[in-house]
Write a structure and sequence with these properties.
WDR47; 70 residues; single chain
């Protein structure tokens, strides 16, 4: 007899796990890029804080212009 188990995990939870891993390894640029790409944020931040976090902490990952902060 073969036992089969199914685990249902939400996609956002998997992304949060990866974000936590990246944060623990101090891979902050990769973490911010994944947050931007997926739209999943691993934390409780206000809209203002997210704006500042994305636009001023790592200017090299600006997607719209492809350029750093001027």
């Amino acid at each position: 007899m073969t036992a089969e188990e199914v685990i249902n995990i939400k996609e956002a939870e998997v992304i949060k796990l990866i974000l936590d891993f990246l944060n623990s390894r101090k891979l902050h640029i990769s973490m911010l890029a994944l947050e931007k790409e997926s739209g999943v944020i691993n934390g409780l931040y206000s809209d203002d804080m997210l704006f500042l976090r994305y636009n001023y902490t790592h200017p090299t990952i600006h997607v719209k212009t492809g350029k750093g902060r001027t």
